[in-house]
Amino acid sequence: MSAALVAVLRDAAARGEFAGDVPEDVPVFARGPGVFESPVALRLGLDPEVVARGVGGVVSRGFVRVTVGVGELVERVRSDPGYGVARVPEFRWDEWPRTFENPGFVVRYAYARAGWAVRWAREAGVPEGVLERAEPDELALVSLLGDFPGRAAQAERERDARPLVLCLEKVAGAYHDVHERRPAMDGGRVALAEAVSRVLGNGLNMIGESPRERI
């Protein structure tokens, strides 16, 4: 979403509608499953309608709001190897204890669990599909997946891994809840597990830890 907004700003500058410097990235905040807002127009003194039109969004309280379908968002995450990747300082959780009291274990185990769910589905011949009828806990998880790039960008901007680390812990906790209640027995939920694997894998790599398929 940040890249799309930057592209709109560049187009506006080329048309003479924006005379300032175009930033390399802009802040984007997840406001719900598939709902994103950016204060970029307010911060740059640009008519928010110009930006909103460029990304197919609307203006809400001066913020540019873009809504993406839940299934489309999951598909974007799972199919983008570079989703949310930023330059983040290294961080390390404790290795032990390997219980749910240790947030590092929660994240590592969620990555392993999501990968296992995807492998099992493929071996079982579960056909690919799109997440359409998401339950509330799945919607909460999707919202966290959408927030991931913003937290990674914040961690890079502030040179502090903690915003990203907290996001990873939230994604992992939400995924464990979904995994226990709603196994990946259909294509849409397999896609969701793949998206979780993508986010957690990218996040672990960013903080300097190699993702593990088995814990």
From TrEMBL:
Q: Which UniProt keywords apply?
A: ATP-binding, Ligase, Nucleotide-binding
Domain of life per record: Bacteria
Q: What Pfam families does the entry give?
A: DALR_1
Looking at the record, the residues that make up the DALR anticodon binding domain are: 107-215
List the Gene3D superfamilies. Answer: Isoleucyl-tRNA Synthetase, Domain 1
Q: Which residues cross the membrane?
A: none
The entry's protein name is DALR anticodon-binding domain-containing protein
User: What organism is recorded for this protein?
Assistant: Actinomadura sediminis
